[in-house]
Known about the structure:
Largest sheet: none
Mean pLDDT: 85
Helix content: 55-70%
CATH class: Mainly Alpha
CATH architecture: Orthogonal Bundle
Distance between the termini: 53 Å
Number of domains: 1
Number of strands: 0
CATH superfamily: lambda repressor-like DNA-binding domains
Structural class: mainly alpha
Low-confidence stretches: none
Shape: globular
Amino acid sequence: MERSDVDASLDFERPEDDVEYVDVNHNLERKFGLRIRHLRTSVDLSQEELAFRSGLHRNYISDVERGRRNISLRALDKLARGLGIELRDLF
């Protein structure tokens, strides 16, 4: 293969400028955060109270609810316990 053929094989089609891309991971984190907020407010807990009950920092709870954190399994378990629900009920 000549050098020009290699260069040509590395060309990728560029998407149209008007195509909107959605960050799938952020969208998922945002949806989960809204679920946590719904569960928290449905039992009339503040972020501070949920943080205390779950052993997590209030800022962390806020970040989760806003979709700014990729939450670990351990933190999920702590949140469920803090909310007084089963882990599966978070979803």
